[in-house]
Amino acid sequence: MKRREVMTVALRDAIPIIIAYFPLSMTFGVLASASGLPALYSILSSVWVYSGGAQFMLVSMLAEAIVPMTIITTILLVNLRHVLYGATLGPSVKEWREPYKWLAALGLTDEIFAVVSSRVNKGEQLTPTYYLTFAISAYGSWILGTIAGSGLGGAVTPDVANILSFALPALFLALLFGGQRGMASMLAACTGAVVATIAGMLHLGGIGLVAGGLIGATTGLLVTMKLRLKQVK
Fold first, then answer.
1. Got the DSSP string for 111-157?
2. What is the pLDDT of residues 79-127, one digit of tens each?
3. Contact 200, 208 (CB under 8 A)
């Protein structure tokens, strides 16, 4: 397949993600601006962090004046799944030149991983032309949406901003119920939620987010290992 044809296929695959990313990132831009975050910082976060859950969480934690170390730790925990994504796709990109691998890492989001891994599982070869066309177009949509939202943020009233703030829990609920819903994943989510809620009631601040993430993930891992041992026996 010629390069132009590969790029056409990549853009066709990216259209649903482009359409979804723009309004979501625009919501982030509006919330960030309404929270007092300068537009430049909002845009730079989309350029550098490029993670919906982490960016929405960042705005929320900055508004609550949570200590920087807790913010950094929480965001790293939220994005830890990308290490597994990279390990999964690693064999498919091992022949790529190093600059392409770094660009691929930057553009690896949940949605892109889902589409790309499905093609790889079908036995298709993953080329830099396809992947980078796909990833860069989605990346551009996210940045443009943030720019648009940052421009509109100053015109948004606090009441509307409070309504839009539901985008963060809605995003995580979508990730929870849209993903694998086995016993391990549901126990992990419930355990993390309970720990974070109790920590909040005890006024422990951002420690609850970190503790909930760690304890919830550990619970899910232990349950998964136990279930696998039962299957082996």
1. HHHHHHHHHHHTT----HHHHHHHHHHHHHHHHHHHHHHHHHHTT--
2. 777 787 888 888 899 889 999 999 888 888 888 888 888 888 888 888 9
3. yes
